[in-house]
Amino acid sequence: MIEMLEGRFFKTFVTVLQERSFSRAADKLGYVQSTVTAHIRLLEQACGKKLFNRLARGVEPTEAGEEMAKFAHQFVHLGASLEEAMNRLDDPRGTVRLQALESFCVTRLPRFFGMFFTRYPHIKLHLETGFFREVLDGVANHRADLGIVSQHPHRDDLDFYPLQEERLLVVASPDIVRVYEQEGWEGLREARVIGFGSRCVYQTCADELLSAQGLKGNDVLEFASLEMIKQTVRSGLGIALLPEIGVKAEVEAGGLGILPTEPVLLTHGLVARSGRELTSASGRLRDSLTGYFGGSGEG
């Protein structure tokens, strides 16, 4: 029976049931009466029962028609619910789990989130900070829907969407900059390297950069916060490799100076589990992030 049924037949049946008339049902549905008659005839053929008795003025359901009405109403309601659910995809809702490097969150995301949540007020965000490997593992193991990392992971189980090229600069206090100007890198052999620690790609880049300048084995101070790193560098306790956007204000104000090295360039991007269909809320965040950073949202 099921292969002979169509949703519009049930809608026509329910309308005839409500109007108690084929002609009025046709007017309400925008059909010619012969179409209504054909829909009811096809339903009757499918179930093998007569569904309406024709009266002098209209129709009334038979016993089979009364039984059919129970299921027809459910079918029409299900169709309306399905249509509503599909329409909600244009107004997504739900919670998105995002993991990202703390420095990217602080420097790049506040303005974006202001725009995003104004447009999609029914989406909630669970944001956790983490380092490169932690973010990758979180997404790969379904603990996060999306992640933001500082470089392409080159993993088959993860899709990568480039977001923003990041310039990293070596910064120091004005006093340490003066030491460099007088003695070069040789004068910084005892300088501490301040950063997020060995789990962070920034730290790996800093080690490689300083090694190229002949500096190896410098003491390292690790902090979890970009602000704490900047304040420690400003106090003269060491040098750090940090995103240009994250130190711009301090450099312009004279609280930090830049050591003259080639800037390190990294491409931050969004990662999602390959082959996994995202929820409407997660998909909208992904599309909004790639559109914002790939367009004119950030330079």
UniProtKB/TrEMBL annotation:
What is the designated name of this protein? LysR family transcriptional regulator
Q: Which InterPro entries does this one have?
A: LysR_HTH_N, LysR_subst-bd, WH-like_DNA-bd_sf, WH_DNA-bd_sf
State the species of origin: Paenibacillus hemerocallicola
Output the CDD domains linked to this UniProt entry: PBP2_LTTR_substrate (cd05466)
Alphabetized, the UniProt keywords read:
DNA-binding, Transcription, Transcription regulation
GO molecular function list: DNA-binding transcription factor activity; transcription cis-regulatory region binding
Q: Indicate the family of this protein.
A: Belongs to the LysR transcriptional regulatory family.
Among PANTHER family, the record links this protein to:
HTH-TYPE TRANSCRIPTIONAL REGULATOR, HTH-TYPE TRANSCRIPTIONAL REGULATOR GLTR
PROSITE patterns in the cross-refs: HTH_LYSR (PS50931)
All copies of domain HTH lysR-type, residue ranges: 10-62
